[in-house]
Predict the 3D structure of the following.
Amino acid sequence: MRRITLVPGDGIGPEIVSGAVAVMKAVGEKFGESFSFTTVDAGGCAIDRTGKPLPEETVQACLDSDSVLLGAVGGPRWDTLPAHLRPEKALLGLRSALGLYTNLRPARLYPALLSACTLRPDIALKGIDLVMVRELTGGIYFGERGRRETPGGTEAFDTEAYSVMEIERITRVACQTARKRRGQVTSVDKANVLESSRLWREVSHRVAREEFPDVEIRDMLVDNCAMQLVRNPSQFDVILTSNMFGDILSDEASQLTGSIGLLPSASLGDGSRGMYEPIHGSAPDIAGQNRANPLGTILSAAMMLRYSLDLAPLADAVEQAVDRTLSDGLRTGDIAAQSETVLSCTEMTQAVIDRL
Ligand code: NAD
């Protein structure tokens, strides 16, 4: 029995998480696997109940489980609280408590949704199927920062720092991911300017050469990568990059595929346990109306089956059912063209289950 902790969170979180749970139960039944689910609070709902965005019992439940599925946290009700009480604190707290230093974000353009792609049709037709591997707990977001007085006035600084160990472990994740795909890693940096990027290049090439001779690794400067993503995204398989570059490039890549309601993500550490969540937020504008697209969360559950639970056949089945649902023309409001029938969150979930 695999133990899954559910953190539905706020807004549409509970609706989309219950869709993903229904799909996991259905695929488990089909393949003779069973899951136990424990639901805990984090984010705004936890603030309302306990006064804290991340109660200790939530952290403990996540630590006690095989993996974590999260909906989304936050909303206008909690926007005016002081920084240490903001719902987003729950995400950072969970990442650090679970030791999650990698963020994996696939960006895939579904042939059935070609018209939703923001690129010229001749570029979109070549396809987009890439995974962004972003370092999650180092770099400038965690480096030394502050303000200081200089003869010219006040200045502020943030520091980008990466250790050999941090670069080695994230490179291994990127190479392992590439091995399960098309075997190509593009390592993105700013080595023409930054010393941290020069170390990044040295270490990532050494790890790839010594441990993954079957994986092809090439370098690309971040400014060029931002351009290549809109010019010819079909060239990318796995993109390996630092925390800040990954933050920016993964949003760019996700927008190319049409709807943020469709995209999953995984945060991973050294063990098999991970935290899986759709890339979108809590969508307060449609919360409680049964209108949310559950596919990003359902595909996050598929990633969990593959990466944390070692149940690749179940992951394949869920991903193929989502493919079929989309190619059969079924749509929620966020991806529907004007003339298309719009399904509710629960109807879309059922459509996926019917195609398993
Ligand atoms: P959002 O992603 O919640 O919504 C942006 C737009 O996309 C909205 O119009 C929304 O209706 C739509 N949308 C998002 N997900 C959808 C889905 N599954 N189906 C259909 N439509 C969908 O971003 P936002 O409005 O900037 O943020 C709302 C709240 O979410 C804020 O409090 C923000 O801090 C929080 N947030 C949380 C996370 C997270 O928990 N990981 C991530 C981003 C934003």
Notes: The mean pLDDT is 95. Residues 102 and 135 are 5 Å apart (CA to CA).
